[in-house]
Amino acid sequence: MRFEDTSHSLRETIQKMVDSIDGRTVTLREIVELTGEQGLLLLCAILTLPFLLPVSIPGVSTVFGLAIILISVGIMLNRAPWLPKKIAERPIDAEKLIPTLKKGSHIVGRIERVIKPRIEGLTKGTAVSRFNGLVLMLGGVLLMFPLGFVPFSNTLPAFGVLFLAIGIAQCDGLFVLAGYGLTIATLIYFALLGYGAFAAGQGLSSMFGG
Asked: Angle, nearest 10°, between helix axes 173-209 and 126-143?
């Protein structure tokens, strides 16, 4: 299986998913099947939605973050990703996921009003695809950081992945650039958080040591 451009909008894909989910839980494998082979980039975007809204769905950070990483590998290899059974079959609370998808569809609806093919050199070509896949992979790794309690620690990388995925899928290099920028902003933010934690630790050490 290879990646192909999707003819469906992200909002249409989300609505199809909401209408098709039946039961108290849903697995990542079922989400992939509902999205379809041609919508794997859009699936990558959909997996960011729980991180953009003030909701808590247990286990999502690890499962969705790892899925984004594996999809990124698929993008670099131009093949559909392999998902480990433990990740693909892990149950997700459908009662919490469905409202998140519905709210998220309003966000992507606004994005899709302005998205269009432009600066296509950032979305096509083997070298560019591999680079974009690497940036998406980095975004997935950043989403898996256990910093959900820190403001914007999930929101920044999630928007970065969302913009990259939609930009690549719809050949909009401007959104791809925005995805690059948000990913870089996340790295800077995390570096500042790390420096702040280190400085605070040094201060406490000197206080109690002195």
From this structure: 40
Q: Work out the average pLDDT over 163-184.
A: 92
Q: Judge whether 122 and 107 are in contact, CB under 8 Å.
A: no
Average pLDDT over residues 63-74: 84
Q: Which two tokens stand for residue 177?
A: 């650039």
Of 49, 42, 50, 93, the C-alpha closest to 71 is: 42
pTM: 0.78
Tokens of 121: 């050199």
DSSP 117: S
Closest CA to 178 of 100, 123, 99: 123
Residue 51 in this model has a pLDDT that exceeds 50: yes
Return the half-sphere exposure (C-beta side, CA atoms, 13 A cut-off) of residue 77: 12
Q: How far apart are CA 63 and CA 183, in angstroms?
A: 20
